Amino acid sequence: MLSLEDIFPPFALRITCGPVELRVLRDDDLPELVELVRRGIEAPDLPMPFLQDWHTRPFAPGSPDGFPTTSLAWWWSQRATFGADDWRLALTVHRDDELVGMQDLHAKDFAQTRHVDTGSWLGLAHQGRGTGTLMRQMVVGFAFDELGALDCGSGYIVGNHASAAVSRKTGYVENGRRRIVQHTAEGKAGVDEQRVLVTPATYVRPADRLVVEGAEALRRFLGIEQ
């Protein structure tokens, strides 16, 4: 009988460095992930980091509205729409075997552009320990070393000095600002986003060795030739 990893090769991906491991979100992770979100993920002294205030929706398990149902639809849709021309790796972040956050890696028309974008968040109790920098260094190193990416983009809301520091420590350089719209309970709000870009020439590797499992099967699944 085929395993889940045989059927959906992203499930076989493991990226490890020191005490941190990244792996693709599974349904078994959802109860722990929901509890992590409920304990808080937004630092009170920083701007709201997301386009949608999904993490502050009323907690209503078993209801068609509120959290976590609205977020489940998003997490599941990433798997349902996964394809070679448009893919998103929703990676759970584990530190010392505890789920502490999420690290996304996504791309459109990667075969032609060799460009990926990243996004991430950490549970509030796990911030300030260097995990945010390490998990970004890990996913960027994976994109360069295993997928053959030429550059990695990201962005943060102007004023979010914590995200700015993570980007800087990973080797990102500023790549222009743009006006974007955030959707909150109070309505739409226009905010400034700082775009950043990292290339192999500016990338800062983590101190420990990066260990990757399942990359070859993932490349086949995505039709990536290095």
Annotate the secondary structure layout.
Layout: H1 4-7, E1 14-17, E2 20-24, H2 30-38, H3 69-80, E3 86-95, E4 98-108, H4 110-113, E5 115-122, H5 131-147, E6 151-157, H6 161-170, E7 173-184, E8 187-198, E9 211-213, H7 215-222
Parallel strand pairs: 5-6
Antiparallel strand pairs: 1-2, 1-9, 2-3, 3-4, 4-5, 6-8, 7-8
Strands of the biggest beta sheet: in what spatial order?
7-8-6-5-4-3-2-1-9
Percent strand equals 25-35%
Q: What is the H-and-E element order?
A: HEEHHEEHEHEHEEEH
- Indicate the overall shape: globular
Q: How would you characterize the overall build of this protein?
A:
With 226 residues, the protein is an alpha+beta fold. The chain is 28% helix and 32% strand. The protein contains seven helices and nine strands; from the N terminus they run αββααββαβαβαβββα. It has a nine-stranded mixed beta sheet, with helices on both faces. α5 crosses α6. The radius of gyration is 17 Å and the shape is globular.
